[in-house]
Amino acid sequence: MTPAPDHRGGATVGHLQDYDAITAASIVYLRMWCNSADTQASMAHDLIATLGIGRGRKAVEAFAELCGMCVQHGRRPLCRHALHCKCVGADEASFAHFIAAATEGDRDDAMLIAILLVRPDVAPIITSLAADFGLALKQMNLATPRAIAQMPPQRQTTLH
Asked: Which residues constitute the domain of residue 130?
């Protein structure tokens, strides 16, 4: 699929199976967060069930704030593929690599990616949130987030 010029961020750059657990989970959870209130609740349940109430809620709060700041202060809306799509779009890959860099303590790279996502003054804030969320993902035994595996396919208004 070749996206229209205004959807360059949705251009396929890979497949979920090619990513490690942290980056794949970041992509899946981004899709879930953006999809619906039901998939947000499913994501929250997945994190809380795995990490416990305290750490799970903190992870959900960090991710919610991260996504909210990307929406509010983003350079443009992030393109994403459908919830069950096996492809990974450019924006999704950037978002996931941002979380991975922040998680691994590579603050310089994380800040560079953050500046591509949001205004420069917001970049340090989302980098900290990404590190918090990524560390929570590291604490989980990740393969595929359980919530995504249990959900039936839904019609999407995203690229495919």
From this structure: 16-150
